Amino acid sequence: MYAIAIHGGAGTLPRRELSTGMEHEYRSGLSEALSAGIRVLEAGGDCIDAVTQAVMLLENCPLFNAGRGSVFTYDGHNELDAAIMNGANLAAGAVCALRRIANPIALARRVMEKSDFVMLNGAGAEEFARTQGFEFVAPDYFYSQERWNQLQRILEGDRALSPLTISHIGTVGAVALDCRGNLASATSTGGMTGKRYGRIGDSPIIGAGTFADNRSCAVSATGHGEKFICASVAHDIAARLRYGRCKLEQAVRDVIHGELPAIRGEGGVIAVDAHGAISMQFNTEGMFRACARDGEEPLVAIYAE
To answer: How many CB atoms lie within 10 A of CB 145?
Structure first.
């Protein structure tokens, strides 16, 4: 028995702005990433490998705000964050403010497996990457004209373009249950368009944007990072299962449609529990998402379908 879900960001483009061709590209990107995770799980592989492979595919796709195609900071740089967590032993790894690593999720995993730490930041994280033999890419590897144009519009004071909404569209993540009953979660992002002062969102924060525990569930979040941090969204959902004996769907609903709106938080999560139940909920117009379970047809969706 396996189960896997992935996301490519909540707060999707309004239906009227998403052309048929663009929708097809997003669906193809999600399908490719989901298939990568499924192949690992169908072969009896580990959930950690499944979420890593799925997220790396999404990082490599310039449509999403992670890896290639990440949004720009106020100063015109790309600063990438990622986290991964193993539900079997509560081990976790996270990296923040990377500028030269093509696949931040791979480095987050290396932090988890090959260091004594959980979170590494900026130059220190890249120094660790060098000791681990990671290849460094040129800064323009992450460049996309659309993301650059979005930054310029914000710098010019375009009030019709919200940095928060732009940033929702593209944070990526994956959660999985493997045939041994282990859970894992992974999340990767380019952060918020026009961010300053070394801002870090929820994606690399264990318990906020990323969490996994075999005793409850695995969660990956996307949305207004500051609110997800304050509400400890990922851990809150897991705690409701473990201590409140709540079902996954209800726990996710209560947090995404109750706790978050109460503090004006927008976004969504994907989650899978120890029994293979999957929940993908959001309080925005849509969320790029896909999921599959052993013996069932994969689902790919964008809006509230």
So the answer is: 7
Write down the pLDDT at residue 12: 66
Residue type, 20: T
Which residues of the chain carry a pLDDT beneath 70? 12, 159-169
Single out the residue of 284, 64, 303 nearest to residue 174, CA to CA: 64
Residue 165's pLDDT is 52
Angle at 116 between CA 171 and CA 179, to 5 degrees: 60
C-alpha separations of 148 from 10, 44, 70, 156, 234 in Å = 21, 42, 10, 12, 31
For position 164, what pLDDT does the model report?
54
Amino acid at position 121, single letter: N
Q: Kindly report the average pLDDT of the chain as a whole number.
A: 94
Residue owning tokens 């169908």:
42
Report the catalytic residues: 171
Q: Which amino acid is at 114?
A: K
C-alpha–C-alpha distance, residues 298 and 30, integer Å: 11
Instruction: Identify the residue whose tokens are 């790919």.
Output: 300
Q: Is the pTM of this model over 0.85?
A: yes
Q: CA–CA separation, 208 vs 190, rounded Å?
A: 16
Q: Domains in the chain, please, with CATH?
A: 3-303 (3.60.20.30)
